[in-house]
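[Automated response] Your request has been received and processed.

Submitted sequence:
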Amino acid sequence: MADSSVTSPAFPGASGHAGHDAGKRDFLKLVTAAGAAIGVGAIAWPLIDSMNPSADVLALSSVEVDLTPVVEGQGITVVWRGKPIFVRHRTPAEIKEAQDVKMSDLIEPQPDSARVKAGHDQWIVLIGICTHLGCIPLGNKPTDPRGEWGGWFCPCHGSQYDTSGRVRHGPAPLNLNVPPYAFMSDTRVKIG
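Generated structure:
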């Protein structure tokens, strides 16, 4: 009869060290998994970080505009986030005309007071992109056609906007959008 306490040389792990070898194996698996996770993180982090906006994009997230050179009745175009922004210094007649419009006459009813900042109603600030197909309407230059309502005219399909940027005629379904903006002073506006 053979003694059961003697280990066979064919099975080196069959000795009393079997629990020790299993512990080594678990430790090696843990180290390998941790190393793989760190490697994946080291590769993924630069890729994820590259999706953040660059410094030049962040710098353009807001634009300050000096309004001093813009005379009454004149408009200027500035660029904010790659979009044209129309800034117009409206005349008292343009303001009165925009305020006196009946809401029932508008395609997208919105009072003029909701489109300008209180105390600065002589200034209208709009995203200069037609709401029909994304064209850039004319009307910010003195030589541009402004349509029947004296605002902006999109030559592509004939949409016309009034001096408050509200659509009055044509296929455009919505008013020109108003970007987020705030007056820093009476002669300076921050867009964005």
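Summary generated for your ticket: The two ends are 92 Å apart (CA to CA). The chain has a mean pLDDT of 85.
If you did not submit this request, please reply to this message.
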